[in-house]
Every structure is written in structure tokens, then in C-alpha cells.
Write a structure and sequence with these properties.
elongated, two-stranded parallel ribbon
């Protein structure tokens, strides 16, 4: 029996079969060819959510933008009052014009507010990511890891290779030394 292989699918199939055959032939002798690797992974989202400063950053963001949020709520209440007058047909031409201006003003202020929140949140998250990366590097170096992957790039790994808690502990230690 003869199999005819054409096109890029055929080339891909040949590459996969070659890799598989090589793996079968060399697989059992792989430890003799190269030393074993020490590999771990970190759940970056879990590390971020459980970062010791995460709650404090949320509080800072809330406090930082409370006054602006309150101003937006006040403007929203004014808009709703004017909309009610328009709906009841008791609004003057001036109030109708004012309603349009206030809606535009509200949208602009809301966009500015959201952009500022997003910018500040990114700055604070970037700082936490630097802490996480530094801790991963330290843990990897001190414990002799050859590679530490992000959990999102690992289809499967035994939980014993999860270094997330070790990394979080390292971050806590590093922050304690700074204080």
C-alpha cells in the first residue's frame, strides 16, 4: 500500500511523524543524553489577586477617586431631574439645552474618570508584576529551577510543580524587609 501526501498538510504530517518517531527511539534514553530539567509554574493571576498589597491598592484607588465619583453622581442626579422635567413637558427651552450640555459634560467627565482609573490601576498592577517577577526569579535561582512557566501556558502540570504560594511567600518576605 502506498500513501500519497500532498501540500502543507502532508509536510506537517511528515514533521509530526518524524518528531514522534524520534521521541520513541530516543525517549527511553533521553536522561542519558541530557540532564533532567527542574521545571515549575506560577499562576500569575492568583499571585496578582493574592499579592499582599492588592487590597491596599484597591482601597487607595477607591479613596483617590471618591470625590470625582461623587461629582459624577451629583451631575447624574441633575440630568435625571432635567430628564423628568422634559418627560413631564414642564422643561423650559433653556433647561432642554442645559440637559444636552450636562449629558455631554457627564460623558466627557466619565471618560476622563475611567481613563484615569485605568491608568492608575495599570501603574499599580505593573508594580505588583515587577514584585512577582522578581520573586519568581529569586525562587528559581535559589531552588535551582531551570524553567518556571506561567500557568496559562501550561496545559497540564502536577500540583507539586505549582510555585505560586512559594512566590507569594517570597513577596511577603521582600516587602517585610522594605518596611
Amino acid at each position: 500500500m502506498q500513501i500519497k501526501i500532498e501540500g502543507s498538510i502532508g509536510i506537517l504530517l511528515i514533521i509530526v511523524l518524524t518528531a514522534f518517531t524520534t521521541w520513541i527511539i530516543v525517549g527511553s534514553n533521553a536522561s542519558a543524553i541530557s540532564p533532567s530539567l527542574k521545571i515549575g509554574f506560577v499562576d500569575a493571576q492568583k499571585a496578582m489577586d493574592n499579592h499582599p498589597q492588592f487590597k491596599q491598592i484597591e482601597i487607595e484607588l477607591t479613596e483617590m477617586f471618591n470625590a470625582r465619583r461623587d461629582a459624577l453622581n451629583l451631575l447624574d442626579a441633575e440630568i435625571k431631574a432635567l430628564e423628568k422635567k422634559v418627560a413631564d413637558k414642564t422643561a423650559t427651552d433653556n433647561e432642554i439645552t442645559m440637559l444636552s450640555q450636562k449629558k455631554t459634560d457627564f460623558r466627557n467627565k466619565l471618560d476622563e474618570y475611567q481613563a484615569e482609573i485605568d491608568k492608575r490601576k495599570k501603574e499599580l498592577q505593573d508594580k505588583m508584576l515587577v514584585d512577582i517577577q522578581r520573586a519568581i526569579n529569586e525562587v528559581g535561582r535559589e531552588q535551582g529551577y531551570d524553567m518556571i512557566f506561567s500557568r496559562i501556558y501550561v496545559a497540564y502540570a502536577s500540583p507539586q510543580h505549582d510555585l505560586t504560594e512559594v512566590v507569594l511567600e517570597r513577596i511577603k518576605q521582600d516587602l517585610a524587609h522594605i518596611k
